[in-house]
Amino acid sequence: MRRLLSADPGARIIMLTVAEDLDGVALAVAAGARGYLHKDASRAELRATVTQALADPTWRLAPRRLRSTEMGAAPTLTAREIQVLEGMSHGRSNAEIGRELFLSEDTVKTHARRLFKKLGASDRAHAVALGFRWGLVR
């Protein structure tokens, strides 16, 4: 997917999955996928998703969320930590997130370290996966 997006940055990728693999989905979205559908999606759902993705270059499919009882309550993140996590979920680097939020790269790293600790995440991909699971990012 990264090679496809490097060759065509405007490509709009939608992943089809065979299972509810939210970690894999989070990695795909972090790498640039606009969203995902289960392989059993109806033709109407697939058609509507592709039509929307083609019509709106900024469109992203909101991920399905697990029920809160399956993972417990989501940790409380600050608004800035959520903005940093959202940037990570869109595949942005710390420097890109900083430019977008008018923060230094070091400040973004500080927010990232804090949100990793709150989420219990070992790295960016893990943080994004947990963010999707808890519905903290879309």
From TrEMBL:
Residues 1-54 form the Response regulatory domain. CDD domains: LuxR_C_like (cd06170). InterPro entries: CheY-like_superfamily, Sig_transdc_resp-reg_C-effctor, Sig_transdc_resp-reg_receiver, Tscrpt_reg_LuxR_C, WH-like_DNA-bd_sf. Residues 70-135 form the HTH luxR-type domain. This is Response regulator transcription factor. Coiled coil: none annotated. Keywords: DNA-binding, Transcription, Transcription regulation. SMART domains: HTH_LUXR. It comes from the Bacteria. SUPFAM superfamilies: C-terminal effector domain of the bipartite response regulators (SSF46894), CheY-like (SSF52172).
